């Protein structure tokens, strides 16, 4: 009897130890699963992702709310939309924001998170007053500057056609003094920027993009196009075209992260010229009763307070060779890049 009792006790101990071991393994596994879930919920943690397509894969896309969207208008392009998506990145020891990602060439287009202060698109007096002057024929007789971004043998804005023999003053500054002062200039590449003219009250975004793409400038530092401003908005029903945006300006500015970069009581330049005039450029307004409006202004305004109200946010294209080494893209934990 004693032996049987000991044998039973031994069997019980073995069973209890086995059950405890199984419970311990299950507990550890569950904890590990919970850790993975918490990481997924926390944000898009990116480690050692290369540019372009890998970043899209790591971050993932959304179909509503703030985030990265399939562009829907240009193939292989993904666009950040919303009031404040996680598109912050450190460049030049400053906060910048990702506009879009192109998975065809694996480049990332970014925009400076702070404007440069007062600056003209193209000051008065830079263009010769005669039709064959040093500035070319397109803007020869304009006293308000020229809305053509770059030198062209035949610039056509849909209404006026002619030669442009000087880059816009803002182009010269951004690709000269400003570019030379960038600490991370080795991380950017020469890229195509759309600089074609559009109608200021455009009601068809696809046609607007086609018009912008009708003239291309190849360079290093540009600015946003008018359509990039529209595409940054998640509210496509009320804000999906220039005309809709302007009809619903106070609503649209709440779902577009780019609006936060417009100077207070001022205007932010786009790179987009207007079709009806050789000096008018499309601008985003935060000026008095025109908040959120994508309107038009002369390349150099000569009237009152508006003369000192214009600014710019530089745009550059990151090399496909860069890597995202850390960060989730939030303002407090922006993407970190290396080359």
How many domains? The number is 2
What are the secondary-structure elements, in order, as H or E? HEHEEEEEEEHEHEHHHHEEEEEEE
Q: Outline the biggest β-sheet.
A: 6 strands, antiparallel
Q: Fraction of residues in helices?
A: 25-40%
Distance between the termini: 78 Å
Overall mean pLDDT: 85
Unreliable spans are 1-8, 27-43
Morphology call: globular
- Derived from helix and strand composition plus strand pairing, the structural class reads alpha+beta
Q: How many β-strand stretches?
A: 17
Strand composition percent: 15-25%
**How many helical stretches?**
8
What does the radius of gyration come to? Answer: 27 Å
What are its keywords?
globular; disordered N terminus; 23% strand; six-stranded antiparallel sheet; 2 domains; 339 residues; 8 helices; alpha+beta; four-stranded mixed sheet
Structure explained in plain terms:
The protein has 339 residues and is of the alpha+beta class. It folds into two domains: 1-42; 50-338, no CATH class. It is built from eight helices and 17 strands. Strands 2, 3, 4, 5, 6 and 15 form a six-stranded antiparallel beta sheet that branches. The protein has a four-stranded mixed beta sheet with strand order 13-12-11-14. Residues 1-8 and 27-43 have low confidence and may be disordered.
């Amino acid at each position: 009897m004693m032996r049987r009792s000991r044998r039973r006790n031994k069997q019980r101990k073995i069973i209890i130890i086995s059950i405890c071991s199984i419970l311990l393994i299950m507990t550890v596994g569950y904890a590990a699963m919970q850790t993975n879930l918490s990481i997924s919920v926390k944000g898009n943690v990116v480690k050692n992702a290369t540019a372009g397509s890998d970043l899209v894969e790591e971050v993932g896309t959304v179909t509503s709310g703030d985030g990265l969207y399939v562009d829907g208008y240009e193939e292989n392009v993904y666009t950040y939309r919303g009031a404040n998506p996680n598109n912050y990145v450190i460049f030049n020891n400053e906060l910048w924001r990702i506009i879009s990602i192109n998975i065809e060439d694996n480049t990332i287009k970014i925009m400076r998170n702070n404007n440069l202060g007062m600056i003209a698109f193209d000051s008065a007096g830079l263009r010769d007053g005669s039709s064959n002057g040093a500035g070319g024929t397109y803007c020869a007789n304009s006293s308000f500057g020229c809305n053509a971004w770059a030198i062209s043998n035949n610039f056509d804005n849909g209404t006026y056609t002619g030669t442009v023999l000087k880059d816009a003053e803002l182009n010269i500054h951004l690709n000269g003094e400003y570019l030379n002062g960038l600490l991370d200039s080795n991380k950017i590449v020469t890229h195509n920027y759309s600089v074609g003219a559009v109608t200021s009250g455009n009601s068809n975004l696809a046609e607007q993009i086609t018009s912008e793409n009708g003239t291309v400038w190849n360079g290093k530092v540009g600015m946003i196009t008018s359509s990039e401003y529209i595409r940054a908005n998640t509210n496509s029903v009320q804000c999906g075209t220039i005309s809709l945006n302007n009809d619903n300006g106070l609503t649209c500015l709440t779902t577009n992260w780019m609006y936060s970069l417009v100077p207070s009581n001022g205007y932010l330049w786009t790179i987009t010229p207007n079709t009806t005039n050789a000096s008018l450029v499309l601008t985003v307004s935060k000026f008095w009763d025109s908040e959120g409006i994508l309107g038009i202004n002369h390349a150099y305004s000569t009237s009152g307070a508006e003369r000192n109200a214009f600014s710019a946010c530089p745009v550059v294209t990151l090399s496909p060779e860069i890597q995202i080494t850390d960060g989730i893209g939030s303002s407090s934990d922006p993407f970190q890049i290396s080359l």
